[in-house]
Amino acid sequence: MLPLILDLSGRRVVIFGGGPVGVRKAWYFQGEPRVTMVSRSFTHEAMDLDAERVELDLSTATDQHLKNLMEGAFLVIAALGDPALNNRVLRIARESGIPCNTASGDRGDVIIPSVEKGRFHLLAVTTFGRSPAMARFVRERFSRDTLLTDQMIELQDRARETLRTIEPSQERRAAILGEILRDRAAWEILSRDRDSAWDYVRMRYLHG
């Protein structure tokens, strides 16, 4: 499997399941694609989501009915409590040529990672289903430095633009940016004041 970062704006995601797992999956997609949730019943949390809700008993619905609900979807998610029903959703999605993520049952085509997102960066972690707790643990450890990471990305972008005007060698520019990242003093100053960190980097690395 390969990781990809996708823009799902204007796309449609169909989630089969209205319980806690379905809600968690739907929260993941809030604010980007259009989400449709399909379930016999929905939790109170599901009712608060920005999602279309379709009430349906999947155990009695025909394959064609489920296929019709998936029509036009970019991604299907099987988040039902019954692994056999999830496998059925997976089979129909594959027959329709739509990637599918499964919460239980057979592994689908898509893994939804644990995500930590800053202003200028996004970290996605997965253990391929072996230890969701570890994925959360790694994400939470990284989240402690989310603001500082964004600030360093901002500083790196500023230094990169300056280097383009004073250093013709791309290899040397990359080396300097790497030196800044490994400079503990730069990180320490940055944690206190961004302007001071820029002055430090400019004087030490960008003097031309």
Give the CATH H-level superfamily of the largest domain.
NAD(P)-binding Rossmann-like Domain
Number of strands: 7
Return the structural class. alpha/beta
End-to-end Cα distance: 44 Å
How would you characterize this protein structure?
Helix 1 (20-28) links the parallel strand 1 (12-16) and strand 2 (34-39). The protein folds into 2 domains: 12-112, NAD(P)-binding Rossmann-like Domain (Rossmann fold); 146-205. The relative contact order is 0.09. The longest helix is centred in the last third of the chain and has 21 residues, at 146-166. The strands form 2 sheets. Strands 3-2-1-4-5 form a 5-stranded parallel β-sheet, with helices on both faces. A two-stranded antiparallel sheet has the order 6-7. It has helices at residues 20-28, 44-47, 63-70, 83-95, 132-143, 146-166, 170-182, 184-192, 194-205, and strands at residues 12-16, 34-39, 52-55, 75-78, 100-102, 114-117, 122-125. With 208 residues, it is α/β, with parallel strands linked by helices. Helix 6 (146-166) runs antiparallel to helix 7 (170-182) and helix 8 runs antiparallel to helix 9 (194-205). Helices cover 49% and strands 14% of the residues. It is elongated and about 70 Å long.
Provide a quick synopsis of the model.
The protein is an alpha/beta fold and 208 residues long.
Keywords:
single chain; 208 residues; alpha/beta; Rossmann fold; two-stranded antiparallel sheet; 9 helices; 49% helix
